[in-house]
Amino acid sequence: MRAGLPSFPELWAARVGELLWPSPSVSVVRPEPVDEHPLIKALRNSGKPLTNGQLAKAIGCSQGQATKYRRKFKGRLIEWRQGRYVFVTLADFDDLPKDSVRKLNGKGRKS
Question: Of 13, 29, 68, 81, which one is least surrounded by beta carbons within 10 A?
């Protein structure tokens, strides 16, 4: 053993002790992150679901770029298709339908 270095059992006991009995620490209150991305701002300001074309107009970009933004924030959005339109809204809106209109009306997909 080298002088001044703790042995493996001492290191192990210290690490297990930290895991089992954590030292009391002051919890830091962090503010919620503010979403500054144009896609999130546009959806939050609209307050309703938008089609991809409406979303592109609100952001001020092309429909292709709006689709790329949708893919980037896929986990935070709810997307559904009605006919040829793709509707998009934020996932924190609880009152929006999660199923298609056909499914809600009792009509399943014809296969």
Answer: 29
Q: Which H or E run includes 87?
A: strand 85-90
CA–CA gap between residue 65 and residue 52 (Å, rounded): 10
Selection from 20-24, 82-86, 93-97, 99-103 with the highest mean pLDDT: 82-86
What whole-number distance in Å separates Cα of residue 77 and Cα of residue 74? 5
Roughly what angle, to the nearest 10 degrees, separates helices 63-72 and 52-59?
100
Are residues 108 and 102 in contact, defined by beta-carbon separation less than 8 angstroms?
yes
| Residues 86 and 52: beta-carbon distance below 8 Å | yes
**Tens digits of residue pLDDT in 44-84:** 888 889 999 999 999 999 999 999 999 988 888 889 999 99
